[in-house]
Amino acid sequence: MKVSVKKYAEALALSLKGDESPDSYKEKIDNFLKLLQKRKKLKLTKRFFPAFKDEWYKIIKKIEVKVTVPHRLEEAEKEELSKLLGSAFGKEVIMNVHVDNGIIGGLKLEAGEYVIDGSLAKNLEMLKAQIISSNI
User: Fold this and answer.
1) Closest CA to 36 of 52, 24, 20
2) Backbone phi, then psi, for 96, in 5-degree steps?
3) How far is it, in rounded angstroms, from Cα 63 to Cα 107?
């Protein structure tokens, strides 16, 4: 039976669940890597770690959100946005803020498979497409 990267990630995340000891974490991760080596699957590690991070965040009820904004956010703005996103997702938010002057205004959110693009640049692009399609 072929085991997917996601299944390996789920297995390791579940084995670490509820375990607070750093030594135990190290031992379990070492054993996991030995298992991959024994099965000649070490090449999976490149794809494994993002999958593991997703599974681990599910277990500890956290979500990573990439926030793209046109200017640097103040700490109070980050905290407010983090609270709002945490409330929306029902999880603690780990926010990665990126500044991109090209989005002009608004913001873009990326969380897992979800993307919400509320940037002014995107809205202008959509308006342009609507104008072009209505003139034909």
Assistant:
1) 52
2) -110, 110
3) 18
Residue 9: Cβ within 10 Å count: 21
Mean pLDDT of all residues in 37-58:
87
- Domain residues of the chain, as ranges? 5-59, 62-134
Q: What are phi and psi of 17, to 5 degrees?
A: -60, 130
Would the CA dihedral through 36, 39, 42, 48 be positive or negative?
A: negative
User: Would you state the pLDDT for residue 83?
Assistant: 96
The kind and range of the H/E element at 62 are strand 62-69
97 token code pair: 């803020």
CA 24 centroid distance within chain: 26
Please name the amino acid found at residue 103.
Answer: I
Helix 45-59 and helix 5-16: axis angle, to 10°? 50
Q: Say if residues 8 and 36 touch (Cβ distance below 8 Å).
A: yes
Mapping DSSP to helix (H, G, I), strand (E, B) and coil, where does residue 69 land? Answer: strand
Given a cut of 90, is residue 66 above it in pLDDT? yes
Query: How crowded is residue 35: how many other Cβ atoms within 10 Å of its Cβ?
Result: 13
Longest CA–CA separation in the chain, Å:
67
Which pTM value belongs to this model?
0.72
